[in-house]
Write a structure and sequence with these properties.
Elements lengths: L1 H5 L8 H12 L4 H4 L6 H16 L15 H18 L4 H10 L18 H17 L1
Helix pairs in contact: 2-4, 5-7
Length: 139
């Protein structure tokens, strides 16, 4: 993200221009990663810091999120359940059947799943985070 910003001349953009550019470009860069996995907290904080610093620059209001930019942790918490729901609704898809056949007894995601073994892959652990969020909405 930092490399992407290096070519943009923020001093020539007003605050609204920086907000728009951030919403259109910077919010979309980490989306692919956070929809499949839960990045470490320090990575999430760094992504959010880069966005805030781009928008606010050196002004004193840079701690405020009133920019319309999406917080990475909240976006992640919204995308992981979406992936789990797709595994529940489309268990025959290649990616879902691979994980489900490896980590479940009957190859299907059921309401009693949610326990994660220590040897489970990161993808399965993160899918179960999303599944637990789905269960709260289903029950």
């Amino acid at each position: 993200m930092q490399e992407k910003l290096s070519g943009w001349k923020t001093k020539f953009l007003n605050i609204e221009g920086r907000k728009t550019l951030s919403k259109v470009c910077l919010n979309n860069l980490p989306t692919h990663t956070v929809q499949f996995t839960k990045p470490p907290r320090r990575i999430i904080n760094k992504i959010d810091q880069i966005q805030r610093n781009f928008i606010w620059g050196s002004t004193s209001d840079h701690h405020t999120w009133g920019t319309g930019a999406q917080r990475t942790d909240i976006k992640n918490l919204a995308l992981l359940p979406k992936l789990a729901w797709r595994a529940f609704k489309q268990p025959s898809s290649l990616w879902a059947s691979t994980l489900l056949n490896k980590y479940t007894k009957n190859g299907k995601l059921e309401s009693n799943h949610g326990d994660v073994k220590p040897h489970s892959s990161r993808q399965w652990k993160h899918l179960m985070i999303g599944w637990n969020v789905c269960q709260k909405g289903i029950d």
